[in-house]
Amino acid sequence: MKFILGKKLPMTQLWDNDRVLAVTPVLAGPCTVTQVKTKALDKYSALQLSFGVRKEKNIKKPQLGHFKKAGVAPMHVREFRTENDADAKIGNQIDVSTFAVGDIVSVTGTSKGRGFQGVVKRHGFQGGRKSHGNKDQLRMPGSVGPKGPAHIFKGMRMGGRMGNERVTIQNLSIVAIDVEKNILYIKGAVPGANDGLLLIKGEGELMFRTAPVAAEEPKVEEPKVEEEASVEAVAAEAPAAAEVPVEEVKTEETTTETAPVNETKEEAPAA
Question: Does pTM surpass 0.85?
Answer without folding.
Answer: no
